[in-house]
Design brief:
Elements: E1 12-14, E2 20-22, E3 30-36, H1 45-56, E4 61-67, H2 79-90, H3 109-114, E5 133-136, E6 142-146, H4 155-169
Parallel strand pairs: 3-4
Antiparallel strand pairs: 1-2, 3-5, 5-6
Length: 170
């Protein structure tokens, strides 16, 4: 039987330059983790995600982007080309990580954890398409998730982030 992982902090991811990044570096931060793609109908959400980051403008809130080619092969770019596309075309300043798999048996362990109903009672949703959003509280626990068609600037997402930041401050 697989032992439950209580939060995202045991996981490491790869920065766009290939360096390891422990997610424990984001301890005590509220995170919005999003699987992205540069050639998807939802790609304009990159600009909206950056706008959300700017509007919340809190040192304990971060957005983490994880490019994937899992859905419709909509991430043809690799490495620095992904980061350049995001920054030049959509003004993205939040971290974009190396391309990974987010579904299936070869999914990155972070996304296996986030979508695992046995480990996250609040989650029964594995990413169904690009721009699936996972909201993680300051303890590294899954707090909520949003389907790809949920606009990052929706009041639902903003209010939940602000509530988590307020809870953290108490």
């Amino acid at each position: 039987m697989q032992e439950s992982i209580p939060n995202i902090y045991p996981f490491n991811v790869k920065k766009i330059n290939g360096e390891d990044q422990p997610l424990s570096a984001y301890r005590n931060k509220v995170l919005l983790i999003v699987n992205t793609a540069s050639a998807c109908g939802f790609t304009p959400q990159l600009k909206e995600l950056q706008q959300l980051k700017n509007e919340i403008n809190h040192p304990d809130f971060e957005i983490l982007g994880f490019p994937t080619n899992d859905f419709g092969k909509q991430e043809p770019l690799d490495g620095a080309d992904i980061a350049a596309f995001c920054e030049v075309n959509h003004g993205v300043k939040f971290p974009i990580f190396n391309k990974i798999m987010v579904r299936g048996p070869h999914a990155h362990p972070l996304f296996q954890f986030l979508g695992d109903k046995k480990q996250n009672l609040k989650s029964s949703a594995k990413p169904r398409w690009n721009f699936h959003k996972y909201l993680v509280n300051s303890k590294g626990e899954l707090a909520d998730y949003y389907l790809p068609f949920t606009n990052p600037l929706s009041s639902k997402i903003k209010k939940r982030i602000q509530r988590l930041l307020a809870e953290q401050a108490q």
